[in-house]
Task: structure prediction
Amino acid sequence: MTSEEIEHFRSLLLDKRRELVGNVDSMWGTAETNRQESSGDLSNMPIHMADVGTDNYEQEFTLDLIESERKLLQDIDRSLQKMREGTYGLCEATGKPIGRARLEAKPEARYCIEYARMAEKGLVRPATREERPASGGFEAEDDATEAE
Result:
């Protein structure tokens, strides 16, 4: 991958990171406000149980979104670290290059499209960086469960 391509993807990742950090900060502020409002008695009106359930659902939904965004931020940070290490754009499971089209759509991608599709079907399990096979092969799901 050329240095211009790396800079292009670094820019995409940093833009996405800034957007996510803003989203998480906003959601966290909303969740905190909702939590404070639900714990305090802001009026003399009795609280209906359905309202409490709705508030709890909204808070849980917001926290789930925050967790999802946090994981995406971790993937972006991992990709930025891989750029510093010179391994950006390589599949963490196979060591093969990740296609440019995939990186354009998902610059934080950890796996090549072939491996990602197999993982979605449950044919392989996503490998950690430490488990990446030197041969570039795939680890079958059955083999992975036997090793655990």
